[in-house]
Amino acid sequence: ILAQANCVCHVQASTTASSCTGSMAQQLSSASLDWSKLSFDVTETAGRAEMVWKDGVWGPLTFERDPYLRLHMFANVLHYGQEAFEGLKAFHCPDGQVRIFNDGANHERMTRSCRRMMIPFVDYEMFTAAVDMAIRNNSAYIPPPDASGASLYLRPVIFGSGPQVSLHPSKEFIFMVMVVPVGPYFKDGFKAIPGEVISDFDRAAPQGVGACKCAGNYAADMMPASEHKKRGFPIGLYLDAVEKRYVEEFNGANLIAITRSGKYVTPASPSILASITNACLMQIAKDQGIEVENRRMDFKAEVEDWTEVGAVGTAAVVCPIKSLTQGGITWNFDEEAKVLESLFLRLTRIQRGEEPDKYGWARVVALE
């Protein structure tokens, strides 16, 4: 099975979508939605891009309008969770172009997740064909340039769809790219929130799948997240599973800290999901003359040296953290987070085409 999974990564995909009424460019941002009231939640859209892996090859790429899937009751993903997914954003920019942000990095990360989960790879050409098809056929749902904090969120997902009872890699897979127009992940935007250090649960084992973007990592967080939210903390920070000493990551975001000496510090660990947003922010910080350290971080030994703390990821981009509480101790940080805000603004301007993209992160998507 693993040999089969590794031999199909350059199969050509058909990009013939079902017909679309009118020009996709003319439909851009035309959906009857109140863009100012978008939240990070589900909104019905036109459909998704999809293809199926069976008998060792990927089938044609199609556009499916039915939001529901038909799966065998013994589909692998329902029982053994063989799945990986990604999250990225597309923007309707002031110059009229639609840009997808850094999808090459998302493809690379998804490939790493697929390798660990024994899922057949989708090559970059197939990945971008599916992304572009999903964007083009949902152009009406891309928020307009003046919709503050809004974007079209894309969710590529690949999972074992073949029926089975015994434990083994699936013999069939479905890859699809769905979209949803979203507002800010945190409703108040760039506003500091309190966090709690999670002491009774672990996010991932040292040699587990913490570095993969797979469903099980997020399912395991639901109970601890629910508990700290009841205590008034919207976000929780995990420490390492062995010593409960070293910083791992927030529920669904990397941690970055600005130290008293002005350094940008973010934890390195084999069980952390490497944030694409964090990687971009590190590059921007370096270019602004900020010293960047990506290393192991001893929480209690270092926390008092942090002046600003942020949770960073595709959904939130940067969310400043005003405090972290562990037991009866609370550490407070600068709520204005001016350094993090400057990095946040620079990155979002690049994403939205409001500033030159010298890094080549954004890719224009042709709507016709």
UniProtKB/TrEMBL annotation:
> What keywords are annotated for this sequence in UniProt?
Aminotransferase, Pyridoxal phosphate, Transferase
Query: One biological-process term from Gene Ontology?
Result: branched-chain amino acid metabolic process
Q: Which cofactor does it need?
A: pyridoxal 5'-phosphate
Point out residues bearing the modification N6-(pyridoxal phosphate)lysine. Answer: 213
Q: Does the keyword Nucleus apply?
A: no
A GO term, aspect molecular function: branched-chain-amino-acid transaminase activity
Q: Which Gene3D superfamilies match?
A: 3.30.470.10, D-amino Acid Aminotransferase, subunit A, domain 2
Which Pfam family is one of those matched by this entry?
Aminotran_4
Protein family membership: Belongs to the class-IV pyridoxal-phosphate-dependent aminotransferase family.
The protein depicted here goes by the name Branched-chain-amino-acid transaminase
Q: What is the lineage of its organism?
A: Eukaryota, Sar, Alveolata, Dinophyceae, Noctilucales
